[in-house]
Specification:
three-stranded antiparallel beta sheet; 3 strands; 51% helix; elongated
Length: 212
């Protein structure tokens, strides 16, 4: 968020925000792929009867990208279908995860929607080809409130809940640009918050439930 505030108040060029946002999204995707690797190493390979799968794993030929789509789980010849035999409880939770994405469900104890993980995944895949994730700005769409030790962004668009607001003495209020990802038209701060916190919620639950 610091880089977002700096882009808004003009102390940093928006290009810095592009790099930081790209790193946040890439880290989210990498966390899921690390989980995919751990699932293969600890829940599939030690228990599978598939000798070809074991050989491919030993030679480094396996590419265990984390499954975001149910087709990556329920087709008999796909890698993670092995969990149906080797770790049924984990297999069931992965099926539930992909169904929650498809059904646009909300992650428990949060306001985040599962389906946004697909946007993170697709944006990171596109970044591999285009190097940077494009961000567009629209001027004077938010209020930036700043004082010592405190910063806050208040949107102006689509606001129906207030006619005015007050701030603490000594605060500086300015109209600033809103930054959105060109790929999905989502506000940068909100989407990066999702990529960080929602990823943490899901990854932690998988590890707590299946790796302890």
């Amino acid at each position: 968020m610091d880089e977002l505030f700096k882009a808004k108040n003009g102390s940093h060029e928006p290009t810095h925000l592009v790099h930081v946002a790209s790193d946040i999204l890439a880290t989210s995707r990498e966390c899921f792929d690390y989980l995919g690797n751990d699932i293969v190493d600890l829940h599939i390979i030690p228990f599978t009867k598939n000798s070809k799968l074991k050989r491919n794993h030993a030679s480094g030929k396996l590419r265990p990208y984390f499954p975001f789509h149910i087709e990556q789980l329920n087709k008999p010849k796909v890698l993670f279908h092995e969990l149906h035999q080797t770790s049924p409880a984990l297999y069931s939770d992965l099926i539930s995860f992909t169904e929650s994405i498809y059904n646009k469900a909300t992650i428990p104890n949060s306001l985040f929607e599962y389906e946004l993980f697909l946007e993170v995944k697709d944006m990171v895949n596109e970044k591999k080809h285009n190097k940077l994730i494009a961000i567009v700005s629209e001027s004077d769409q938010e209020y930036l409130v700043e004082n010592k030790g405190f910063k806050m962004i208040i949107p102006r668009k689509r606001q129906t809940g207030y006619k005015y607001f007050t701030v603490a003495p000594g605060s500086q209020v300015s109209c600033v640009a809103e930054y959105r990802f060109e790929y999905n038209n989502r506000e940068v701060g909100e989407f990066c918050l999702f990529a960080h916190k929602a990823t943490e919620l899901i990854i932690q639950k998988f590890y707590i439930d299946h790796f302890q």
